[in-house]
Amino acid sequence: xxxxxxxxxxxxxxxxxxxxxxxxxxxxxxxxxxxxxxxxxxxxxxxxxxxxxxxxxxxxxxxxxxxxxxxxxxxxxxxxxxxxxxxxxxxxxxxxxxxxxxxxxxxxxxxxxxxxxxxxxxxxxxxxxxxxxxxxxxxxxxxxxxxxxxxxxxxxxxxxxxxxxxxxxxxxxxxxxxxxxxxxxxxxxxxxxxxxxxxxxxxxxxxxxxxxxxxxxxxxxxxxxxxxxxxxxxxxxxxxxxxxxxxxxxxxxxxxxxxxxxxxxxxxxxxxxxxxxxxxxxxxxxxxxxxxxxxxxxxxxxxxxxxxxxxxxxxxxxxxxxxxxxxxxxxxxxxxxxxxxxxxxxxxxxxxxxxxxxxxxxxxxxxxxxxxxxxxxxxxxxxxxxxxxxxxxxxxxxxxxxxxxxxxxx
Length: 410
Hints:
Serine Threonine Protein Phosphatase 5, Tetratricopeptide repeat, ANK repeat, mainly alpha, about 45% helix, activator, Ankyrin_rpt, POU domain binding, 3 domains, about 0% strand, Ankyrin_rpt-contain_sf, 19 helices
């Protein structure tokens, strides 16, 4: 459904249902190009905004709780209570059983406990409405996939329809199909993490969606959140999963989620250095993305991810990766960790330490500061790599390179 290298939605047609009612309903939820169209609208709005002499429009800003403009899910409302993994949908908070239900009511109860004098919030009302619409869908229809491998649940999640996704997830959890994958190997949870629908992520986790699943690129939802800087979704996984999260899982590129977050932060730092446009909106967006990636890295460290883990292809740790961009912000974070002294001189498969890597940078404005920081934290300038080179022998010529040896002799 979604291109894993971006948030573009692929247009496809929903599967045919068994009768006219199901066909009508399927047509109503199958407009899958909505995600792509709204993303294009966002980009056009950004371009328009940058052409208005840097006059920012409030509509183009997104708050901490609304990371995407196209997220039409009712965020302001409290999430529902966890649901038992069976076909019965219980509205949050759970309704007391007042009378014996018929088989159809038992499968999809639509009575909400307003009899107790309690008021129903908007999200609860939406759940009740969607339950009435899809109450007759059979397990066979729920599990049917279209040409892209998408189920009704994948489509509802991609469109940001939280209440509908909640109801469908409850039904699919009951028949053991909540973690069904589409053609890119993505479950509904991975789709929600990709688009950063954090409340849908929470709902799916409450229904029992599995975190340690891989897509066709070997990425778990943790990788997706870390790579894209989706802090809110990552927080939901951290706090609400109730599962043992494999924070050291490698994707098929040999990277953990923490590796992916560090590389994304490096890319954000590099982009900010090279940016020449004066659009204040774009500048603010880059700063925010950089900050969100930092928060993702902090969360992953709290979850137990190790920045000393080596990637499987080159043997780089997160410290090596940060040095590749002279990323002083991350170097300070990692070197302040208690185990930094045992990590600072770790070698890659080619025998390079972090000091080798940062010393070999070309025209990097933070190179001298990074070298000085590593030296203060115990980096050994006498270690040689497999080419028998010392870090000082890798320093390039030029105004920036001339400052590095002086600092290393201090």
